[in-house]
Design brief:
- The complex is a heterodimer of chains A (276) and B (324).
- Chain A has 276 residues and is mainly alpha-helical.
- Chain A has a single domain, classed as Orthogonal Bundle (MetI-like fold).
- Helices cover 70% and strands 1% of the residues of chain A.
- Chain A has 13 helices and 2 strands, in the order αββαααααααααααα.
- Chain A has a two-stranded antiparallel ribbon.
- The longest helix of chain A has 33 residues.
- Chain A is globular and about 75 Å long.
- Chain B is of the alpha+beta class.
- Chain B folds into 2 domains: 226 residues, Rossmann fold (3-Layer(aba) Sandwich); 77 residues, Nucleic acid-binding proteins (OB fold (Dihydrolipoamide Acetyltransferase, E2P), Beta Barrel).
- In chain B, 26% of the residues lie in helices and 33% in strands.
- Chain B contains 8 helices and 17 strands.
- Chain B has a 6-stranded mixed sheet with strand order 6-7-8-3-9-10, with helices on both faces. In chain B, strands 2-1-4-5 form a 4-stranded antiparallel sheet, with helices on one face.
- The longest helix of chain B is centred in the middle third of the chain and has 16 residues.
- The chains are: A mainly alpha (276), B alpha+beta (324).
- At the A-B interface, α9 and α10 of A face α2 of B.
């Protein structure tokens, strides 16, 4: 931890207080916090922050709802469940870059299957990858497709910790199957749902590869994430001092949200599965 | 009165339960006793309406339960796991069913308070199940069954999650709360001592079929099959081989030291307090004897018994052979 997390963090903190770019011959020169002042005034950074949060919130929200439905379905016993269970994990097992390329083709205007379908349905072109107002939807769809299986698996494990006797007892007390969902399943699944949200939010807020391949952050920066902006500053603009500042700011924003949430949930006891 | 008529249940082609005929009278407690996997819990789930029989039917108070859904059967069930809702307090656990059944809040409160004091959990009303001891959890489960005001009680291994001392403490409690009431009680257990102590009659189940129904005394004194003879009574009955081909069982408590009896070598012993269990070896195999006199391992001693205490069984059908 000290080597792969602690040391880089210290190094970034130090670097964020220096100018280190082509102008300084890549030598770090102290600039008394000018990077941070630049960050506060950098509209592109704040737009990326909003876009990253929007991406994370929408993806994770949709994933939880879909995964819950999937997990409830896969928890029932029916013919062919084993095959569906195995298949449903496939998107998660695929490398992100491969599946992002796949989605880029699906969304392609005018040759992708989605546009073809829209065309034969008589709709005007969707332009999901070229209309800056809607590109966020393309990134969310691709991310939901890829990571819903992960949450499904987590929730399925949670469902299997709920003893069948509870449902039997609930039935004997006069409860309907529909009511059992809100009376038993959801309350007992809460710790697993919350852990899913925490894990996935942390991951989605650092998104890089999916967007890099699918849209490259565009068009017009409409899907750019904080991680991409940091990458861009370092690798294209060769401004390592400012890249470190962006990276660190993103990290601080994210950890404020995740860490506070995790601590609060831990204290409230909501993360602990209940025993009967 | 609860009546089971040739009740049967199968999973695929395998019968879990077959030809179950049983009556539990008003105020009576019948134990379904058998090793795990004998179908006894399945019988309870069929009566509760949680599963449907493939054969036969169930009558409660003279009416068939056929087609009546679980929630309308007025069953007071206690699960082996207690099946308490872990996210609800004791009070809310008890309240859930009353609320679902649409009882007015004031009446609910009154009934729950009464039951809480009956099961002596007034001070625990706001705790969650995981904050309770095993015995307290069991009493919540009993309380929930009481609140159902049922026509029949079904108890599924209600004590098997408790340690031996707690079981002894809870037996009188169980009698006071449930067994002394007018409702028929069907009590599932694999513990023959528990069945003997609590039930008026015992039905011994094996591989989904009843081996014998009778009072605890009848089962002990006149076991109908070799299986029942081995299942009822601790320490277990001794089996001797005799030349006429019959299987002969003799209980350890019916043996006595006798200078003139067959000679056996003592190979081990267990102190039980009031007496000791001697493990002996001889020409006819091994023998366990309950005895109060002190013997040392390695000693040879004579053992005899009265022929009237012998149980004879057919070695093929395993049925009891009557001896005149």
């Amino acid at each position: 931890m000290a080597m792969v997390f602690g040391w880089p963090m210290l190094r970034y903190s130090w670097l964020s207080m220096h100018a280190s770019s082509v102008l300084t011959g890549l030598e770090p020169v102290s600039n008394q916090g000018a990077n941070w002042i630049r960050l506060l005034e950098d509209a592109r950074f704040w737009q990326d922050a909003v876009q990253t949060l929007r991406f994370a919130a929408l993806s994770v929200g949709l994933e939880i709802v879909l995964a819950l439905a999937m997990a409830l379905l896969l928890d029932q016993s029916w013919r062919g469940r084993g095959v569906v269970r195995a298949l449903s994990l496939l998107p998660w097992a695929l490398p992100t870059t491969m599946m992002a390329l796949g989605w880029r083709w699906i969304f392609n205007t005018p040759y992708g299957p989605l546009e073809q379908m829209a065309q034969s349905a008589g709709l005007s072109p969707l332009n999901l990858l070229s209309n800056p107002d809607w590109t966020w939807l393309a990134t969310v769809i691709a991310d939901v497709w890829k990571t819903t299986p992960f949450i499904t698996l987590l929730l399925l494990a949670g469902l299997q910790t709920i003893p069948d006797d509870l449902y039997s007892a609930f039935r004997l007390e006069g409860g309907k199957t529909r009511q059992a969902l809100t009376a038993i399943t959801l309350p007992l699944l809460t710790p697993y749902i919350l852990i899913g949200i925490l894990f996935r939010t942390a991951q989605a807020a650092g998104v890089f590869d999916l967007i890099q391949v699918l849209t490259g952050g565009g068009p017009a920066g409409s899907t750019e994430s904080i991680a991409q902006y940091a990458y861009l500053n370092a690798m294209r603009f060769l401004d390592f001092g400012y890249s470190a500042t962006v990276m660190l700011a993103g990290f601080v924003l994210l950890s404020l949200v995740i860490f506070t949430a995790a601590v609060l949930l831990q204290i409230s006891g909501l993360l602990r599965p209940l025993k009967s | 009165m609860l009546k089971l008529n040739t009740l049967g249940k199968r999973y695929g082609s395998r019968w879990i339960l077959r030809d179950l005929n049983l009556e539990v009278l008003t105020g009576e407690c019948v134990a379904l006793l058998g090793p795990s996997g004998c179908g006894k819990s399945t019988a309870l789930r069929l009566i509760a309406g949680l599963e449907h029989p493939d054969e036969g039917g169930i009558e409660l108070e003279g009416r068939s339960l056929d087609g009546i859904p679980a929630e309308r059967r007025r069953i007071g069930m206690v699960f082996q796991s207690y099946a308490l809702f872990p996210h609800l307090s004791v009070r809310d656990n008890l309240d859930l069913g009353l609320k679902i059944r649409g009882m007015a809040p004031a009446k609910r409160r009154e009934q729950i308070d009464a039951v809480l004091s009956t099961v002596q959990l007034v001070n625990e009303a706001d705790r969650r199940p995981e904050q309770l001891s095993g015995g307290q959890r069991q009493r919540v489960a009993l309380g929930r069954a009481l609140l159902r005001n049922p026509s029949v009680y079904l108890l599924d291994e209600p004590m098997s999650n408790l340690d031996a001392q707690l079981r002894d403490e809870l037996r009188p409690e169980l009698r006071r709360l449930i067994l002394q009431g007018p409702q028929p009680v069907l009590y599932v257990t694999h513990d023959q001592q528990e069945a003997m102590a609590l039930a008026d009659r015992i039905a011994v189940l094996r591989n989904g079929r009843i081996e014998q129904i009778g009072t605890p005394q009848e089962l002990y004194l006149k076991p109908a099959t070799r299986f029942v003879a081995g299942f009822i009574g601790r320490p277990q009955i001794n089996w001797l081989k005799k030349t006429n081909g019959a299987c002969i069982g003799i209980r350890p408590e019916h043996l006595r030291p006798d200078e003139n009896g067959d000679r056996w070598r003592l190979i081990g012993r267990e102190w039980l307090g009031a007496n000791q269990l001697l493990l002996m070896e001889g020409a006819a195999g091994q023998l366990q004897m309950l005895c109060s006199a002190d013997f040392q391992p390695g000693e040879h001693l004579g053992v005899s018994w009265s022929p009237k205490d012998e149980h004879h069984f057919d070695p093929i059908s395993e049925k009891r052979l009557s001896r005149s």
